[in-house]
Amino acid sequence: MRVHFNYFQELLMYVCLCNAITDKDIKQAVTEQGAGNIRDLRNHMSIANQCGKCTQITQQIIDSTILDESLFKEVC
Ligand code: FES
To answer: Cα(20) to centroid of ligand 1, in Å?
Structure first.
């Protein structure tokens, strides 16, 4: 995994090196597009479609993002 700082000094982690997809891209697709698994994610971006080495970490990021989102949702 490669870690870079973007212009705004945000920490980015490249998850899929074949397609230059970062953890932020994945989290954004989960929170804004409702992607809940890699198949859903592929509707929004090209990921895990070449060497496949990113498949496991991608699913872990999806799962942890869903968990984080559910912990901070308002309960009525
Ligand atoms: S690192 Fe994602 S397909 Fe190769």
So the answer is: 9
- The verdict on the CB of residue 51 being under 6 Å from ligand 1 is yes
Which CATH number is correct for 2-71, 2.30.29.30, 1.20.1440.230, 1.10.760.10, 1.10.10.1100? Answer: 1.10.10.1100
Q: The dihedral of CA 2, 27, 41, 67: what is its sign? A: positive
Global pTM value = 0.81
pLDDT attached to residue 76: 58
For residue 37, count other CB atoms closer than 10 A to its CB.
13
Confirm or reject: Cβ of 17 under 6 Å from ligand 1: yes
